Amino acid sequence: MSFDPSAEPLPLALGCMYFGSRLPRAEAFALLDRFADAGGTLLDTADCYAFWEPGCGGGESESCIGEWLGSRGKRQAARVCTKVGAMPGPDGVREGLSGVTVSRAVEGSLRRLGVERIDLCYAHVDDREVPLQETLSAFARLIEEGKLRAVACSNTSAGRIREALALSAREALPAWCAVQQMYTYLQPLPGTVFLGGAQLFADAGLLQLCRETEGLRLLAYSPLLGGAYDREDKPIPEPFLHPANQQRLQLLQQLARERDCRPGQLVLAWMIHRSPSVIPVAGASTSGQLEANLAAARMTLSPEEMRRLDAISGP
Fold it and tell me: Which residue in 6, 10, 122, 163 has the most C-beta neighbors within 10 A?
């Protein structure tokens, strides 16, 4: 079995992090309905979403998606993508990617999602305490059992991905078919550490790896920086505050005026038109946000617009 996220009809994944927690079930269902009606298929979640929200312990997003799939009969059309390995244990430390943990976590995800098979399962955060062979062997067993269709990684450096791909080829183990990393138009200052190192930004090395590796797709989380491109009440995060990014923001605003669209829509369209093409994982908490994202996924940028967007170097 294999899976290519880029082959789906809409080059956009719906980020479902707060479905069933911060976003009530009825509102989440309405967004899922609209996304599906618009041709969207990629639903992105994780077993740990959203344990940090008041009254939550993780699994809320998966359960919400599972209820929606069951009530709408959408299982055949949806592509369910989840992640394992970042749920905190009793000591507050991420549970990691041991073979036992991976197997147990996938069983829990299957139960909450109400499905027999997950289309794409990510190793959520790189775990250097566990041999890659142990993690990949656990995923291999789950694929053989029909519980997973394909596997991917997230928050993993280009070097570690190369190591994993070489191991997969050498040992006939399943290979990562995608990597999900933080990525957006603005570039963080070099050396920035996100969430204590648990979140990684897609750097030049990772982009190059995706260009040269057949079958390795890049998906981007936090592509809109929580709405900072479009909302005055959402400041640009501090790691992205530097002169080169000020030029990028000014260009985005100028192009948005020329095209009569939002700067954030240009960011999503720029990702989709890049080489390598990037699939944005864009969350939405309102119908207006979702409609803007859907429109961006169908925008066409000219070669000249891409040249202008790519012309600013730095930081």
Answer: 122
Taken in order of first residue, the domains within the chain and their CATH numbers are 9-310 (3.20.20.100)
With beta carbons less than 8 A apart as the criterion, state whether 3 and 150 touch: yes
> Do residues 256 and 305 lie in contact, with contact meaning Cβ atoms separated by under 8 Å?
no
Q: On the CB side of 77, how many CA atoms lie within 13 Å of its CA?
A: 17
Q: Identify whether the C-beta of residue 53 lies closer than 8 Å to the C-beta of residue 21.
A: yes
Neighbours of 207 (CB within 10 A): 18
C-alpha 164 chain-centroid distance: 19
What DSSP line would sit under 246-278, residue for residue?
HHHHHHHHHHHHHHTS-HHHHHHHHHHHSSS-E
Bond before 276 cis per omega within 30 degrees? yes
How do strand 118-123 and strand 79-84 relate by DSSP bridges? parallel
Q: Is 128 exposed, middle or buried (0-12, 13-18, 19+ CB in 10 A)?
A: exposed
Listed in sequence order, the residues at least 6 apart from 214 whose beta carbon sits closer than 8 Å to its beta carbon are none
> How confident is the model over 4-23, as pLDDT tens digits?
999 999 999 999 999 999 99
Please tell me the total number of residues recorded for the chain in this structure.
315
Residue 230 CA, chain-centre distance (Å), reads 21
Residue with tokens 């923001």, as numbered in its chain:
249
**Residues 6+ away with beta carbon under 8 Å from 129:** 96
Split at pLDDT 50, 70, 90, the class of 313 is confident
The tokens for 234 are: 């959402």
CB atoms inside a 10 Å sphere around CB 48:
27
Q: What is the mean pLDDT of the chain?
A: 96
Token couple for 66: 């599972």
Residue that has been written with the tokens 């244990």 in this structure: 89
Tens digit of pLDDT for each residue in 123-182? 999 999 999 999 999 999 999 999 999 999 999 999 999 999 999 999 999 999 999 999
